[in-house]
Write a structure and sequence with these properties.
The structure holds two protein chains of two kinds. Chain A is an alpha/beta fold. Helices cover 10% and strands 24% of the residues of chain A. Chain A has helices at residues 11-19, 182-195, and strands spanning 2-5, 26-30, 47-51, 66-70, 85-88, 104-107, 120-126, 140-145, 161-164, 175-178, 205-209. Classes of the chains: A alpha/beta, B alpha/beta. Chains A and B meet through helix 1 of A and helix 6 of B. The structure holds flavin mononucleotide. Flavin mononucleotide (FMN) binds next to strand 13 and helix 11 of chain B.
């Protein structure tokens, strides 16, 4: 177990240490005080526990590593993550999980606006609420929301699946409610279990693309 | 006026192409989408000429005295700056808009000529990485295919904020070109009309950009030069902010720059020409004492060694070419005249890159058409063309007495029109007058 104190080490030193860590290594990071770009570009299945709030782009482009943040996260948490797991015990600011291709992102608290924007395969589970324009242009993967969703959820969505337990303030263009079939309940149950969230799948509704904007259609012009 | 009947007078307000567009719009109900760049006349580098050396300055001997063309890009913060033999680079054009063979050809040609090539909206293909000695990896709003492995495989990273053909617009790739491979790379359903985001998903302003650049450097061990590309609009401010955000290199793309697919109204009516854009970018760099420290790459309508020489003389460190590179590969070739005719166009006029039915097999995903371009031959043609541009550039630099092409300066040129004099900031030929300078 290695401990890195950001009062003593620079961000460069931190990331360098984490990036060369070997499979199975454990790291603890202290005194983060909202610093940016912490624990980014990791490639191995190491465990990183970050104590304190983090700034922009924490866990950016993560591959394989498990990163836990005991605190709140700034904008762009786990942006473009490829694999591995990122968990934040508090809230996450805007664009959490933006463009992420894979892995699991768990936000125990609330996520702000544009959560899962342009997501490309990641699974995101939010314990609380999500802000407006979440899953904007979301391409694939799954977004699970145990609380409520803000305005214009899933605007211009492609093939991402969204499950919401609470209220949805409004749906964005081309996003619609869809039937919860057996396979969806199974998928949701697995994700809730992985995220360690104790809710019944029957409390959730499913949303996805109406696929009306996939090709230019002049009769849909009011939606553009 | 019609050639055969002098009583038929064409309207200047409603010429035939304007009438045809109104008719097309009424019929289809959708704006015109096309490729290529702006087609209307705008002030260009053609409106500048060099003052060759004579009594007050002496020229260099054509084949005997050295005129160096090497450039180094990205030595502000990056541990591994880019070294190029010639300051003429290949601009970012996506796999998707171009065939895999075309991307490979660009890599081969650039590598033979000792320069770099660039990925595009849609990710990096193994073909282009394999055949490009120096490859710049674009970081675009869509983030299609973006991944840290390719980021580390790249030689430099170009953050695209905008493009000259459509500053403020996102990428577009219509269903015909979303083939299974393109769909898989971009993580999109096959055959959809892809309209990418016009701004980045995880930041909004220049202060965020600074943090984004820090993140990208952290992921790549501070090795790779980071370029920031903007479409030419408020160039002075954009360049200033890019430098402040920590860019190693700034790329400024003028309004006549090419595109794979954009609304015609965007191509023709948004952005400013390359000519004033270079001057404004250089002024911004000079004001921060960053000229030559942060390098400037200029693109948009570069066709000849003369264009390159003039861009450098105004203060650019290098240029990038898109459309001209495609033409060198075979785009618009009369060899395919019959095929152009069959799709209602002609060699030299074709601009429907979005359709995917390119007779020259370059801007297509159709496997049969794509076979028409042999990557080895394409690469050779591009290398030939790049070598010609470099020789022309040296010819002009030597004539002005310069032993390195970067020694060209605005004082080596005058303008043929008042517009060009004002935009480029060089005197109107035969006068000492630079319109707009010193308040006159
Ligand atoms: C077919 C084609 C595809 C392009 N794709 C991209 C792209 O993916 N990303 C980008 O930043 N610019 C793209 N561009 C713009 C070029 O990078 C460059 O800015 C422009 O071509 C320069 O102007 P020129 O064509 O007059 O040389 C594309 C241009 C063309 C012609």
């Amino acid at each position: 177990m290695a401990t890195i104190d950001l009062n003593q080490s620079s961000i460069r030193e931190l990331n360098e240490k984490l990036q060369v860590g070997s499979s199975g290594d454990n790291f603890t990071v202290n005194n983060t005080v909202g610093k940016h770009a912490l624990s980014v570009g990791l490639t191995k299945d190491i465990n990183v526990e970050i104590n304190g709030h983090v700034g922009y782009y924490c866990a950016g482009m993560n591959q394989e590593a498990s990163i836990k943040i005991n605190g709140n996260a700034g904008p762009g948490l786990a942006e473009n993550m490829m694999s591995g797991q990122v968990r934040v015990t508090g809230n996450a600011s805007q664009y959490a999980g933006a463009t992420a291709h894979g892995g699991l992102l768990v936000i125990e608290g609330d996520a702000s606006s544009r959560c899962g924007i342009s997501m490309k395969g990641v699974n995101i589970v939010v314990g609380g609420n999500i802000g407006h324009m979440s899953a904007f242009m979301a391409q694939s993967g799954t977004l699970v929301v145990c609380g409520d969703a803000g305005d214009a959820m899933g605007d211009s969505i492609y093939e991402t699946k969204i499950y919401v337990r609470g209220k949805v303030k409004s749906l964005g263009t081309d996003c619609e409610e869809k039937e919860m079939k057996k396979e969806h309940k199974e998928e949701l149950a697995t994700l809730l279990e992985m995220a360690q969230m104790n809710y019944s799948v029957d409390e959730f509704r499913r949303y996805g693309s109406a696929r009306k904007l996939y090709n230019f259609d002049i009769d849909q012009v009011d939606d553009y | 006026m019609s050639k055969d009947n002098p009583t038929l007078i064409e309207s200047a307000t409603f010429p035939r192409h304007v009438i045809a567009e109104i008719q097309r719009a009424a019929k289809t109900g959708i704006y015109d989408i096309r490729g290529f760049g702006a087609k209307r006349e705008i002030p260009t580098f053609d409106d500048l000429v060099f003052l060759g050396a004579s009594t007050s300055r002496y020229p260099l001997e054509g084949y005997r005295e050295k005129c160096t063309t090497e450039v180094v890009l990205g030595n502000r913060f990056a541990k591994k700056p880019i070294h190029l033999k010639t300051p003429i680079t290949i601009a970012g054009m996506s796999f998707g808009s171009l065939s895999a063979q075309a991307k490979e050809s660009l890599g081969r040609g650039a590598t033979i000529a000792g320069t770099s090539t660039t990925t595009g909206d849609g990710g990096m293909t193994p073909e282009e990485r394999g055949h490009s000695k120096t490859l710049v990896y674009q970081y675009l709003p869509s983030r299609y295919g973006m991944n840290p492995d390719d980021l580390r495989r790249a030689d430099a990273i170009e953050i695209v904020l905008g493009q000259g053909a459509k500053p403020g617009g996102g990428g577009m790739l219509l269903g015909q070109k979303i083939s299974p491979r393109v769909a898989q790379m971009r993580n999109l359903p096959e055959g959809i009309d892809q309209r990418s985001a016009c701004r980045h998903p995880d930041w909004t302003g220049p202060d965020d950009l600074e943090i984004k650049i820090q993140e990208l450097r952290e992921i790549t061990n501070w090795e790779k030069p980071i370029y920031v590309k903007v479409g030419a609009t408020r160039v002075f401010y954009d360049v200033t902010l890019a430098v402040k955000a920590g860019a190693d290199v700034v790329v400024v793309d003028g309004m006549q720059g090419g595109t794979a697919a954009t609304q015609d109204v965007f191509i023709e009516h948004v952005g400013i020409p390359t000519l004033p854009a270079v001057r404004m970018a250089v002024e911004a760099l000079q004001e921060m004492d960053m000229h030559r420290k942060v390098q400037l790459i200029v693109s948009g309508g570069i066709r000849s060694g003369a264009d390159v020489a003039k861009a450098l003389a105004l203060g650019a460190d290098a240029v990038a070419i898109g459309t001209a590179a495609l033409i060198a590969l075979g785009d618009q070739s009369p060899e395919f005249d019959e095929d152009y005719k069959a799709i209602g166009s002609a060699a030299g006029f074709w601009d429907d890159y979005q359709q995917g039915n390119d007779p020259a097999g370059i801007t297509t995903q159709d496997p049969e058409l794509a076979k028409r371009l042999d990557p080895k031959l394409g690469g050779r043609r591009l290398a030939n063309y790049l070598n010609v541009l470099t020789l022309e550039l040296q010819t002009l630099a030597r004539a002005c007495g310069k032993s390195h092409v970067h020694n060209l300066e605005p004082e080596d040129m005058v303008a043929l029109t008042m517009e060009a004099a004002a935009m480029a900031g060089v005197p109107l030929a035969g006068t000492g007058w630079i319109p707009g300078k010193n308040g006159v």
